[in-house]
Amino acid sequence: MENMSSCRQQLEALRSQVREQIDSLAALEMAFLDEADYLRRYDQARILRALQDRITQEVRYMRRMEDSASYGFNWAMIITGSAKLALWSLIPPKLHTKEHPLSVGLEHASSDFSRTAAFGTVVVAVGPEGIPDDVQVTSLSQYAREQRKAESEIAATMEDRGYRLVEPENFLRTLDELREQVLRGSVSLPVLNSGPVPH
Q: What SS3 class is residue 91?
Protein backbone atom coordinates (compact mmCIF):
# COMPACT_ATOMS: atom_id res chain seq x y z
CA MET A 1 0.00 0.00 0.00
CA GLU A 2 2.80 2.29 0.84
CA ASN A 3 4.26 1.61 -2.58
CA MET A 4 0.96 2.59 -4.21
CA SER A 5 0.77 5.82 -2.26
CA SER A 6 4.33 6.65 -3.26
CA CYS A 7 3.47 6.02 -6.92
CA ARG A 8 0.44 8.31 -6.66
CA GLN A 9 2.57 11.06 -5.20
CA GLN A 10 5.13 10.64 -7.97
CA LEU A 11 2.34 10.61 -10.56
CA GLU A 12 0.87 13.82 -9.12
CA ALA A 13 4.32 15.41 -9.13
CA LEU A 14 4.75 14.41 -12.79
CA ARG A 15 1.30 15.81 -13.66
CA SER A 16 2.21 19.06 -11.95
CA GLN A 17 5.48 19.25 -13.89
CA VAL A 18 3.65 18.51 -17.16
CA ARG A 19 1.13 21.31 -16.42
CA GLU A 20 4.01 23.69 -15.70
CA GLN A 21 5.70 22.66 -18.95
CA ILE A 22 2.44 23.15 -20.88
CA ASP A 23 2.01 26.61 -19.35
CA SER A 24 5.64 27.44 -20.18
CA LEU A 25 5.16 26.23 -23.76
CA ALA A 26 1.99 28.30 -24.11
CA ALA A 27 3.85 31.39 -22.88
CA LEU A 28 6.75 30.60 -25.24
CA GLU A 29 4.31 30.14 -28.14
CA MET A 30 2.76 33.55 -27.39
CA ALA A 31 6.24 35.11 -27.27
CA PHE A 32 7.09 33.54 -30.65
CA LEU A 33 3.79 34.72 -32.14
CA ASP A 34 4.39 38.26 -30.82
CA GLU A 35 7.92 38.24 -32.26
CA ALA A 36 6.66 36.91 -35.63
CA ASP A 37 3.99 39.64 -35.71
CA TYR A 38 6.60 42.31 -34.90
CA LEU A 39 8.90 41.02 -37.67
CA ARG A 40 5.99 40.95 -40.16
CA ARG A 41 5.08 44.54 -39.29
CA TYR A 42 8.71 45.66 -39.51
CA ASP A 43 9.07 43.94 -42.90
CA GLN A 44 5.90 45.63 -44.19
CA ALA A 45 7.17 49.01 -42.96
CA ARG A 46 10.42 48.35 -44.84
CA ILE A 47 8.40 47.56 -48.00
CA LEU A 48 6.54 50.86 -47.64
CA ARG A 49 9.83 52.74 -47.21
CA ALA A 50 11.21 51.11 -50.38
CA LEU A 51 8.00 52.04 -52.22
CA GLN A 52 8.34 55.62 -51.00
CA ASP A 53 11.91 55.80 -52.29
CA ARG A 54 10.88 54.36 -55.68
CA ILE A 55 7.95 56.75 -56.04
CA THR A 56 10.14 59.73 -55.12
CA GLN A 57 12.71 58.80 -57.79
CA GLU A 58 10.08 58.11 -60.46
CA VAL A 59 8.24 61.39 -59.78
CA ARG A 60 11.49 63.33 -59.99
CA TYR A 61 12.35 61.59 -63.30
CA MET A 62 8.85 62.13 -64.78
CA ARG A 63 8.87 65.80 -63.84
CA ARG A 64 12.27 66.26 -65.49
CA MET A 65 10.95 64.54 -68.62
CA GLU A 66 7.89 66.82 -68.61
CA ASP A 67 10.11 69.90 -68.24
CA SER A 68 12.25 68.70 -71.13
CA ALA A 69 9.21 67.99 -73.32
CA SER A 70 7.78 71.43 -72.52
CA TYR A 71 11.07 73.10 -73.39
CA GLY A 72 11.27 71.20 -76.69
CA PHE A 73 7.66 72.03 -77.56
CA ASN A 74 8.12 75.73 -76.82
CA TRP A 75 11.39 75.88 -78.73
CA ALA A 76 9.83 74.17 -81.76
CA MET A 77 6.84 76.52 -81.58
CA ILE A 78 9.13 79.57 -81.59
CA ILE A 79 11.23 78.23 -84.48
CA THR A 80 8.30 77.28 -86.73
CA GLY A 81 6.36 80.45 -85.89
CA SER A 82 9.39 82.62 -86.60
CA ALA A 83 10.07 80.78 -89.86
CA LYS A 84 6.47 81.28 -91.04
CA LEU A 85 6.55 84.94 -89.98
CA ALA A 86 9.75 85.55 -91.92
CA LEU A 87 8.68 83.55 -94.96
CA TRP A 88 5.24 85.16 -95.34
CA SER A 89 6.63 88.60 -94.60
CA LEU A 90 9.24 88.26 -97.36
CA ILE A 91 6.95 86.92 -100.07
CA PRO A 92 6.51 89.63 -102.70
CA PRO A 93 3.34 91.67 -102.10
CA LYS A 94 2.01 90.68 -105.54
CA LEU A 95 1.28 87.16 -104.24
CA HIS A 96 -1.00 88.26 -101.44
CA THR A 97 -3.36 91.06 -100.54
CA LYS A 98 -2.59 94.74 -100.07
CA GLU A 99 -1.95 94.20 -96.37
CA HIS A 100 1.42 94.99 -94.90
CA PRO A 101 3.79 92.00 -95.34
CA LEU A 102 4.41 91.76 -91.58
CA SER A 103 0.64 91.52 -90.96
CA VAL A 104 0.39 88.67 -93.45
CA GLY A 105 3.38 86.91 -91.86
CA LEU A 106 1.94 87.34 -88.38
CA GLU A 107 -1.43 86.03 -89.51
CA HIS A 108 0.15 82.82 -90.86
CA ALA A 109 2.48 82.40 -87.88
CA SER A 110 -0.12 83.07 -85.18
CA SER A 111 -1.35 79.47 -85.17
CA ASP A 112 2.17 78.30 -84.30
CA PHE A 113 2.61 80.94 -81.61
CA SER A 114 -0.73 80.07 -80.01
CA ARG A 115 -0.40 76.28 -79.98
CA THR A 116 -0.74 74.72 -76.56
CA ALA A 117 -0.22 71.29 -75.08
CA ALA A 118 -0.46 69.79 -71.63
CA PHE A 119 2.76 69.50 -69.62
CA GLY A 120 3.75 68.74 -66.05
CA THR A 121 0.82 66.85 -64.53
CA VAL A 122 2.39 63.85 -62.79
CA VAL A 123 0.28 61.70 -60.46
CA VAL A 124 0.54 58.46 -58.52
CA ALA A 125 -2.00 55.88 -59.66
CA VAL A 126 -3.08 53.27 -57.11
CA GLY A 127 -4.70 50.32 -58.83
CA PRO A 128 -7.30 47.82 -57.63
CA GLU A 129 -4.69 45.58 -55.97
CA GLY A 130 -3.69 48.48 -53.72
CA ILE A 131 -0.50 49.41 -51.92
CA PRO A 132 2.29 48.26 -52.35
CA ASP A 133 1.79 45.99 -55.39
CA ASP A 134 -0.33 48.13 -57.71
CA VAL A 135 1.22 51.60 -57.56
CA GLN A 136 2.68 53.50 -60.52
CA VAL A 137 3.77 57.01 -61.36
CA THR A 138 1.97 58.39 -64.41
CA SER A 139 2.19 61.54 -66.48
CA LEU A 140 -1.35 62.52 -67.37
CA SER A 141 0.13 65.24 -69.58
CA GLN A 142 2.13 62.77 -71.65
CA TYR A 143 -0.91 60.56 -72.24
CA ALA A 144 -2.99 63.64 -73.09
CA ARG A 145 -0.43 64.77 -75.69
CA GLU A 146 -0.07 61.28 -77.18
CA GLN A 147 -3.81 60.66 -77.42
CA ARG A 148 -4.71 64.29 -78.22
CA LYS A 149 -7.19 64.42 -75.35
CA ALA A 150 -7.64 66.57 -72.28
CA GLU A 151 -5.91 65.51 -69.06
CA SER A 152 -9.32 65.27 -67.40
CA GLU A 153 -10.41 62.67 -69.98
CA ILE A 154 -7.27 60.62 -69.32
CA ALA A 155 -7.88 60.84 -65.56
CA ALA A 156 -11.53 59.79 -65.97
CA THR A 157 -10.51 56.80 -68.09
CA MET A 158 -7.99 55.66 -65.49
CA GLU A 159 -10.50 56.08 -62.68
CA ASP A 160 -13.04 54.06 -64.68
CA ARG A 161 -10.44 51.27 -64.82
CA GLY A 162 -10.24 51.25 -61.02
CA TYR A 163 -7.26 53.54 -60.39
CA ARG A 164 -7.18 56.25 -57.77
CA LEU A 165 -5.10 59.23 -58.81
CA VAL A 166 -3.19 60.97 -56.05
CA GLU A 167 -0.87 63.98 -56.03
CA PRO A 168 2.68 62.67 -55.37
CA GLU A 169 3.21 64.78 -52.25
CA ASN A 170 -0.09 63.58 -50.72
CA PHE A 171 0.77 59.99 -51.55
CA LEU A 172 4.19 60.22 -49.90
CA ARG A 173 2.59 61.67 -46.75
CA THR A 174 0.08 58.82 -46.79
CA LEU A 175 2.91 56.29 -47.02
CA ASP A 176 4.49 57.86 -43.91
CA GLU A 177 1.18 57.52 -42.04
CA LEU A 178 0.69 53.95 -43.27
CA ARG A 179 4.17 52.99 -42.14
CA GLU A 180 3.42 54.26 -38.63
CA GLN A 181 0.09 52.41 -38.59
CA VAL A 182 1.75 49.20 -39.79
CA LEU A 183 4.37 49.41 -37.04
CA ARG A 184 1.62 49.93 -34.45
CA GLY A 185 -0.25 46.94 -35.88
CA SER A 186 -3.44 48.83 -36.76
CA VAL A 187 -3.02 48.28 -40.53
CA SER A 188 -1.60 45.42 -42.55
CA LEU A 189 -0.54 45.21 -46.18
CA PRO A 190 -1.88 45.20 -48.80
CA VAL A 191 -3.94 48.35 -48.39
CA LEU A 192 -6.64 48.10 -51.03
CA ASN A 193 -8.11 50.95 -53.03
CA SER A 194 -10.96 51.33 -50.57
CA GLY A 195 -8.40 51.99 -47.82
CA PRO A 196 -6.85 55.23 -46.61
CA VAL A 197 -5.46 56.69 -49.86
CA PRO A 198 -6.15 60.43 -50.24
CA HIS A 199 -7.24 62.01 -53.53
A: coil
pTM: 0.71
Q: Give residue limits of the domains in the chain.
A: 52-184
Residue of 104, 110, 101, 117 lying closest to 80 (CA atoms): 110
Distance between CA atoms of 40 and 44, rounded to whole angstroms?
A: 6
Following DSSP, what letter does each residue of 16-38 receive, concatenated? Answer: HHHHHHHHHHHHHHHHHHHHHHH
Q: What is the pLDDT of residue 113?
A: 63
Cis peptide before 196 (omega within 30 of 0): no
In whole angstroms, give the CA distance from residue 193 to residue 135: 10
pLDDT of 168 reads 97
| Average pLDDT score over the chain | 84
- Best CA proximity match to 195, nearest among 120, 122, 129, 99: 129
The span from the CA of 62 to the CA of 167, in Å, is 13
* 162 pLDDT higher than 90: yes
